[in-house]
Amino acid sequence: MKKLNIKNMKKSTKSNFITYAMVILVFAVVQFMVSGGMMSSLMQGLLVPLCTYSIVAVGLNLCVGYLGELSLGHAGFMCVGAFSSAFFTKYMVPSGMNETLRFLLAIVIGTLVAAAFGYLIGIPVLRLRGDYLAIVTLAFGEIIKNVINVMYVGRDSAGLHLSFKDKASLNLGEDGEMIVDGAKGITGTPHQSTFLIGVIILLISLVVVFHLVNSRSGRAIMAIRDNRIAAESVGINITKYKLMAFSISAAIAGAGGVLYAHNLSTLIALPANFGYNMSIMILVFVVLGGIGSFRGSIIAAVVLTMLPEVLRGLADYRMLIYAIVLIIMMLFNWAPKAIEWRQRFSLKRLFHKNTEEVQ
């Protein structure tokens, strides 16, 4: 039998395996705790948001860490995915379609619509760099949120009606039903998001990004990040690969938005939901978890989402402790001494010392 040498396993493959194993292990532990009644209802309510923010952070890290472009509009892509999928679900509820099939189609629609917006926005935006690109993507997120807030969509026997004025201007018949009610958003969306679905989408997102960054296209994307002029000089299509990475990043954010929308009975495009603060929060997950580290983004998203809720009983000291944890995480990831310590006790060294060849 051919021997399997763990020491000679590719570093990227080993890292990917550890990330998959971490997600699956956490899922198994959480399921055990829930089934055993060892987890509070508050923590159970956080499970889907944890998956949502982890998925969106993974998508943004692809854009920031591997494409090298700072985007502050991922809350906008999340918003697009959330509202397009919720619109489809609300529209199809009376049709009697199978709930599982309807939800799967909603995930596909939300992901594809976000990817399409990412592609369309990326064509003009990716010509910019640095702060200019960040400002334009931030503007996109704000525009999307405000457009949805003034959108009224209803339906009756005559079909769909759209207005940007008010509900009365739709002139719905007696059998009319509002689907998108302006600033009130979409109400009555079926609660179909679960922790299992969230973990599955997270794993699929990880498979997509790992496959991309370890492929020939991924190497071209990283070459563009490192030196745009050199990459162009050897024949790499700059526009093609930047649009590819940006669209996939937007699509993953849209998938997170679908999960978010179907975890709420009422979906409203408030600034707290899809505004500037949401984009900054996701960026914080990426930076604190380590730019270019998908596993770090997941860990940071989980820790920083849970922390305010865990510390809620401390009242006034809650945000102080939250800020201290942010500082500690930043130092742990970026301080030279901390990096040196992490390299000394890295998994590679542990594998090198403690593993042997197995049959």
Give the topology, please.
Elements: H1 11-35, H2 41-67, H3 74-92, H4 99-125, H5 130-149, E1 152-156, E2 159-163, E3 177-181, E4 186-187, H6 195-213, H7 216-226, H8 228-233, H9 238-261, E5 266-267, H10 271-274, H11 276-289, H12 294-310, H13 318-334, H14 336-344, H15 347-354
Antiparallel strand pairs: 1-2, 1-3, 4-5
Helix pairs in contact: 1-6, 2-6, 2-9, 2-11, 2-12, 3-4, 3-5, 3-9, 4-9, 6-9, 7-9, 11-12
**Helical segment tally?**
15
- Report mean pLDDT, rounded to a whole number: 84
Distance between the termini: 7 Å
Beta content: 5-15%
List SSEs in N-to-C order.
HHHHHEEEEHHHHEHHHHHH
**Percent helix:** 55-70%
Low-confidence stretches: 1-8, 355-359
Report on this model:
Helices cover 69% and strands 5% of the residues. It is mainly α and 359 residues long. The strands form two sheets. A three-stranded antiparallel β-sheet has the order 2-1-3, with helices on one face. It has a two-stranded antiparallel ribbon with strand order 4-5. A hairpin with a 2-residue loop joins strand 1 and strand 2. Helix 3 runs parallel beside helix 5 and helix 4 packs antiparallel against helix 9.
